[in-house]
Fold these 3 entries.
Entry 1:
Amino acid sequence: MGLLDLLFGNKNEQLQEFITKGAVIIDVRTPGEFQGGHIQGSKNIPLQSLQGQINAIKKLNKPIIACCASGMRSSSAASILKSHGIEVVNGGGWSSLAHKLNQ
């Protein structure tokens, strides 16, 4: 276990825990970016539309894994979702996340 794991927890373990709980992957990139490639089964809700989808996301009653291209927008999305009491983790870039999830 590295120093970063001690400080921030092991993200891979957290991702696997969320998947076990039936997490929904929300990709916050633009529709055009999403069409260029995405994780199978993920939902595309662009970051600029996220605020208007909070109630629909809450109705899913599932933890959320947010992803984007690099992890910057998904970090913002995770902050927004957390502020509304939604269990969320920033999955980072979608292609890296897909690899971690073995997709």
Entry 2:
Amino acid sequence: MADSTAPVGKQYPPLTYVVGREKIREYARAVGETDPLYLDLAAARAAGHADLVAPPMFVVVYASEPLGRAMFDPEVGIDFPRLVHGGQEFRWERPLIAGEEVTTVVTLDEVRQLESANLTYYVFGHRSTVAGELVSTGVWTNIVRGAA
């Protein structure tokens, strides 16, 4: 089961990611996105954007490293061989545009034990901003199975 001393409420240092035009294209192609706003600079500009638009799920690109830092924090105490993905929820305030610098802060929001099933839930939240403006939030749930 979970270490009862896991630092619920701990906020991790912010990490800034520069959204790159080619990273947007690479991500869009990798996940099968075909919207020209993600791939064609002329189309994005014709639609009123300064540069390519990042697909909504690009959030996993800029939030993964800050989340990883939190998850691998020894104080949290996740037993990785027993970890399974529990879920993710996101809210977007506006799309990101190539060239923007997005800053993400992750917090350990909850550690909950479900003793009847021998499971521990680790819930992390993220807030991402550009120049202080909120662009996305997320909840990342990880489940650690207890010893058999």
Entry 3:
Amino acid sequence: MIARLPAWAWLGAGGLAVVAGQVNVVGYLGFEHLALSHLTGTTSLLGAALAGGDGRASAHLLAMIAAFVVGAVLSGILVQDSALRLGCRYGVALLVEAALLAFAVPLLQRHAIAGAALAAMACGLQNAMTATYSGTLVRTSHLTGMFTDLGVFLGHRLRGLPAEPRRLWLCLVIIAGFLAGGVSGALLHVHLGFATLYLPAAATGAAGAGYIAYRMLPLRTGKMPP
């Protein structure tokens, strides 16, 4: 049960969901209709490609899956926590995500698969970085778990069973953030194309740099921030 959700958990979950929604819609609209923020559809497409003997498509899809996993590996190296709690490495992880998204843009503009792979790697890093908070699985790059938790919550309420309202609101924040990212990303893609990804790159970069500066406060004040 979630006893308390601090402000940074709400802001972080919602903001990262917006980022993932933007990245995913740009990949879908601009690069072979590929999902970049999750692997369910990609794995299904890989199965179809293998069944059809399409070696080129299979190689591309495998590259996307591998890139996402590599991003999760990077998160494991950088964050080193299985539970979501603030620490100095989150700032570094966000800066790495920003760099991956920024470097993806010129590659995507040349329709290179490496660009899509870098964007998928950024999503894998972000998805693994959030991990869990107070026993609740927090995934900001896809919505299957959030919609599942939403359904379970509603089912419990219909049966008169105890249900944690904060879990419901966390799901709704992430769902709304991802949808808002999809809408804004699609609108911007019409005018900016793949350069739209510079927006989530800037957002994650600013968040990472700001958080690192915040964590450096003890060096000036002698007091550790929360």
